TrEMBL record:
Gene Ontology molecular function terms on file: ATP binding; ATP hydrolysis activity
Domain of life: Bacteria
Organism: Paenibacillus apis
Name of the molecule in the record: ABC transporter domain-containing protein
Key word Calcium present: no
Gene Ontology BP term (one): transmembrane transport
Keyword Acyltransferase carried by entry: no
Sequence similarity: Belongs to the ABC transporter superfamily.
Domain ABC transporter span(s) in chain numbering: 5-241
PROSITE patterns: ABC_TRANSPORTER_1 (PS00211), ABC_TRANSPORTER_2 (PS50893)
Gene3D superfamilies xref list: P-loop containing nucleotide triphosphate hydrolases
Keyword line: ATP-binding, Nucleotide-binding, Transport
Length: 258
């Protein structure tokens, strides 16, 4: 068994309604799986189950050779980190950036107090935020900068799997590009294993190695990125691609700093 993520027969029900129906999915180590599908298809539910935020009714989730328990241990929670669409969901507005990063580092025993500041500065540098940000608060930053800080916080505990749930959709287009470029560089630099959710096919094409398609709580297609974008196996996959607007050449060529 590889050291990636493995899901078998994962099922979630809400009040008798099946939100996830016997999901079977593998994400190989050091690869990114892009998860697509219309709103309400179950993408975010799957992400939250993998992150341990929702307990499934049935099924097995394993990271490498270790099955993840329904009640995750501290060590298991450390291995999977999630980045949300709105960074305000993960950044406590009452804490400074120093406190936000230090909290995770100390909780999981990543560094001693004597090494906290240096580690915090390294994390900010990794996401291209100046070290002077340490004693400022989330509301003092733009949306793109807050998302970068949220990424730094997720990376602080050195997770084995990073889940990104629509991490660019709340940002302006030019800022989306710079954050997406950050994800791409981090993927290369850190050999990340990622589950990346987006409704934006351009984002999925840029970041993914494999594409999985969800519809009505089921996985209806899994393909390499190249195969999916050239010739999807399902009519629904074609429908998703045909809904992508044709943008003028050069629309995404500009690079702005958030």
């Amino acid at each position: 068994m590889s050291h990636g993520l493995h899901i078998e027969d994962l099922t979630v029900r809400y009040d008798g309604v099946t939100a996830l129906d016997r999901i079977q999915l593998n994400i190989e180590e050091h690869t990114t799986l892009g998860l697509v599908g219309e709103s309400g298809s179950g993408k975010s539910t799957l992400a939250r189950v993998v992150a341990g935020l929702i307990v499934p009714d049935e099924g097995i989730i394993s990271l490498g050779e270790e099955p993840l328990t329904k009640k995750r241990s501290r060590a298991q929670r450390k291995k999977i980190q999630m980045i949300f669409q709105n960074p305000d969901a993960s950044l406590n507005p009452r804490l400074s950036i120093r406190q936000l990063l230090s909290e995770a580092l100390l909780f999981h025993g990543i560094v001693r107090r004597s090494g906290l500041e240096q580690r915090c500065l390294e994390l900010l540098a990794r996401v291209q935020i100046d070290g002077s940000a340490l004693d400022r608060y989330p509301h003092e930053f733009s949306g793109g900068q807050r998302q970068r800080i949220a990424i730094a916080r997720a990376l602080s505990v050195e997770p084995e799997l990073l889940i990104a749930d629509e991490p660019t959709s709340a940002l302006d287009v030019s800022v989306q590009l710079s954050v997406l470029e950050l994800f791409a560089s981090l993927k290369q630099e850190l050999n990340l294993t990622m589950l990346f959710i987006s409704h934006d096919m351009g984002v999925i094409h840029a970041i993914s190695d494999t594409v999985a398609v969800m519809r009505h709580g089921q996985l209806v297609e899994i393909n390499s990125k190249e195969r999916f974008f050239a010739r999807p196996d399902t009519a629904y996959g074609y429908q998703l691609l045909s809904a992508v607007p044709k943008m003028p050449a050069g629309t995404y060529s500009r690079r702005d700093t958030p």
